[in-house]
Amino acid sequence: MDHTTPNHFNTCHMMFRCLSISILLVLLSMPGQSQDDKYQVLAIGFYNLENLFDTLDTENVDDHEFTPEGPKAWNSAKYREKIANMASVISQIGKNLSNEGVSILGVSEIENRQVLEDVISHPLLADRNYDIVHKDSPDERGIDVALIYDKDRVRILNSRWYDVDMTLEGEGSFTRDIQFVSTEIDGEIIHFTVNHWPSRRGGQARSAKFRKLSASINRKIVDSLYSEEPEAKIVIMGDLNDNPNDDSLRKILRSHGKKRQARVSGLFNPMESLYNKGIGSNAWRDTWSLFDQVIVSASLLNDSNGYYFHNIAVFNKNYLIQKRGQYKGYPMRTYVGDTYQGGYSDHFPVVLYLLRKIK
Asked: What pLDDT is stored for residue 24 in this prediction?
């Protein structure tokens, strides 16, 4: 998230509880399912890693802030702690329902491939056989999106990147690319886009056109896939810097929180129901937002054809929450201004669960 730190409030931990603690019980009590039914679980997540920079001052990249000489005095010890923190969180995402945890994870705010290599090679993740799909983006700060995947379960079929050229809107520059990846998972083809849409810097209304541009690119990808394969299984994930009810999601991407409408538009946004309950993934000026979203194609609402949508949750475990001080109740971030906190991220991860019945 590319804006300043929020002011104080102290009620968010009670308001923004994690919904995933009872997922297994929900599964066993769902209509038409017995306790003898067996399911294969696929956990898919997204996590904004909040300024995961190395300590080097890279030429032609505005990363001086995150160097030993910069205002944050970013050094090897802090970098190692950040890597360990990210690995710890990733190792636990999805384990409410899947013993192995997350098999696909989209990430944002990484400086380069190497920082992500350092995360997946950490001892907490080394046994997962994770690999990475990544390309450096044209973003002026050098921050990228990427996809982490479990090679034991996921095969990459194709990948490409879509430019988001904000100069098309009369101002701005290039920002983070939109990543597109086609995969084969347990014999099924599932397509992904990984996003980090332009921030609200300069004001929500003034910057909205840039996020609408990103939404339109995603919609074109979806329509292209549907033209080739009407029942294509698609997952759109990312830090969208907009909420589920904003125009970029509702009017441009045409995603909907009600399944009836989603079957018409082709995209179901399960985050909408969480947002309507007051659940957020990031906070600013005493207000929670649900910028981190996972949206699925309507074909994933069909439980008779392989993997299908089961549940979505914000992974807001207690240890990820600031416990005291001015920002009590907010996500515990790495820095507040230039003061090092040793936390995790200013965003909570989100996790999607897909199921398929084992015959």
From this structure: 41
Tens of pLDDT, residue by residue over 135-166, are: 999 998 899 999 999 999 999 999 999 999 98
- Write the burial class of residue 69 (CB in 10 Å: 0-12 exposed, 13-18 middle, 19+ buried): exposed
- Give the total residue count for the chain: 359
**Overall pTM surpassing 0.85 (yes/no):** yes
Cα gap 256→264, rounded to integer Å? 9
